[in-house]
Design a protein that fits this description.
With 331 residues, the protein is α/β, with parallel strands linked by helices. Helix content is 43%, strand content 14%. The strands form two sheets. A six-stranded parallel sheet has the order 7-6-5-8-9-10, sandwiched between helices. Strands 1-2-3-4 form a four-stranded parallel sheet. The longest helix has 23 residues. It starts with 5 loop residues before the first strand and ends with a helix.
Length: 331
């Protein structure tokens, strides 16, 4: 730390991040904290980790985020009141257009295993109407996530793929043609402050997303131009899915527009320009600074660490049982 002029903490919600922020806060160094989730208000996180995140934000000179709502919130809590807003960098080489292999419209939902209920709550109730009218024209693919579709989607109209590592996932998506991707999201403060990962993931491989009409998707998606919106009600999801089925030729245009958006607005050049404009210190000569003194408090550190483990165990046990919780803690 003594050799550094600018310290960048990534998702700082652990004890080590807090100790670094505390150690450098009055030494003349610039502290930048990067967030891609609202870690201060994350209900699935422990109180200890939410506290670390809040303290790191408070000590920060600059907040770096990927969501405008999140950036605004955290800037107001930070010491420096400055912010950087960037998107995921996408290169042309990452874009692909897999060839269509049949006349059936392939739908896909790619998500972590714990997103099954999200699909069951928002999208699944619309599927019976679609199958009743278009069963021979549609097929449903699930990657990573395994929602309970028994009795709703026939086994010959769906298939499931196991969860994959990120590199394997992108290779898989490049080599399989999917027409339309589901991107349901609940409309609440925490979800509104997430990143548009699904828009980026789907658009990279020419998949047109059907997105819940909520933030953050409202920042990027334009109805029937680079994606399809659906309000979080059964009727609207039925209409959105039916629109995709009956306007297949337009899907190609929307997929192309989404990829153009990635090329123009998600480039390395644009990200670097934003960083240089909002963080000019990155190109300045060395700053006047004092040595960093390591801050050790064995009692506090032990208390915080153990409290975090206990809180994590209790939360995991409530969700999935004590055996699962113990395995997570040990791993």
């Amino acid at each position: 730390l003594d050799e550094s002029d600018i310290i960048i903490l990534i998702r700082p919600n652990i004890l080590m991040a807090y100790k670094i922020a505390l150690a450098v806060k009055n030494t003349g160094r610039l502290l930048v904290s990067f967030f891609d989730d609202d870690l201060i208000n994350h209900s699935e996180s422990t109180f200890v980790r939410r506290t670390y995140a809040k303290k790191c934000v408070g000590y920060s000179d600059v907040i770096w985020a990927v969501n405008p709502l999140l950036l605004s919130d955290y800037i107001s809590m930070s010491k420096g009141g400055r912010g950087i807003l960037t998107d995921t960098v996408v290169t042309r080489e990452e874009l692909s257009r897999p060839e269509r292999s049949s006349d059936v419209i392939e739908f896909v939902y790619a998500a972590d295993v714990d997103h099954a209920k999200l699909f069951e709550d928002i999208v699944l109730p619309a599927i019976p109407y679609i199958l009743n009218k278009y069963e021979d024209k549609v097929f449903f693919n699930f990657i990573g996530v395994h929602p309970d579709v028994n009795g709703i989607i026939p086994i010959n109209r769906c298939r499931f793929f196991n969860i994959m590592g990120i590199d394997e996932y992108y290779d898989f998506m490049k080599n399989h043609h999917f027409d339309v991707g589901f991107a349901p999201l609940h409309d609440n403060s925490f979800m509104n402050r997430k990143y548009i990962n699904k828009y980026v993931e789907y658009s990279k491989t020419s998949i047109v997303g059907i997105y819940s009409e909520v933030f953050p998707f409202l920042f990027a998606v334009r109805q029937h131009e680079n994606g399809i919106f659906a309000k979080n009600c059964v009727d609207d999801w039925e209409k959105a899915i039916e629109y995709a089925i009956n306007n297949y030729e337009q899907l190609s245009c929307m997929a192309e527009e989404a990829q153009n958006d990635l090329i123009n607005n998600f480039s390395m050049e644009k990200a670097i320009s934003e960083i240089r404009n909002k963080l000019p210190e990155i190109e300045e000569d060395g700053r006047d600074k004092r040595n960093v003194k390591e801050i050790n408090n064995k009692v506090r550190d032990a208390l915080y660490s153990n409290a975090d483990y206990v809180a994590a165990f209790v939360m995991a046990a409530k969700r999935n049982g004590a055996k699962y919780a113990m395995e997570r803690i040990l791993n």
